[in-house]
Specification:
Elements lengths: L21 H8 L5 H33 L12 H41 L3 H8 L1
Helix pairs in contact: 3-4
Length: 132
């Protein structure tokens, strides 16, 4: 890199692309000192190939699931394992909410009972009701 790059490159817009003819691109990439350009170009092609394969794989999975439908157009009934997994998935947030709700009610009811229960003559059950 003893010489400066002979051209000035300035982007005029935020998104810019360059179209190359195949022969010109092939000659440019295969020049002796353009291995970094070649590696970058092949990397871009590889990334594009991977994303295309991913999209095709997802499309094949979707088509496979669509073929599993009955001839009447109705989907197959879920298996017992699928229903169990769904019930666990749905139940976990409710258990977390129930724990947090009961914890807050107990703490608030205890504070109300300790602070106002003696002054106002509230029973423990009345203080728990106010804590709710």
């Amino acid at each position: 890199l003893s010489k400066a790059y002979p051209h000035h490159i300035v982007a005029k817009t935020e998104v810019e692309y360059v179209e190359w003819e195949y022969d010109m691109l092939h000659d440019e990439i295969n020049q002796k000192y353009r291995r970094a350009l070649q590696a970058s170009f092949y990397h871009l092609l590889y990334q594009e190939l991977l994303s295309t394969l991913q999209r095709d794989s997802e499309a094949r999975k979707f088509r496979k699931l669509a073929k599993e439908e009955d001839k009447d157009g109705k989907a197959q009934a879920p298996t017992t394992g699928q229903l169990f997994n769904l019930s666990i998935f749905v139940a976990v947030p409710f258990c977390g909410f129930g724990f947090a709700d009961n914890f807050i009610m107990i703490v608030c009811g205890d504070m109300i009972d300790a602070q106002f229960g003696t002054m106002l003559g509230l029973t423990t059950l009345a203080a728990a009701g106010l804590g709710n």
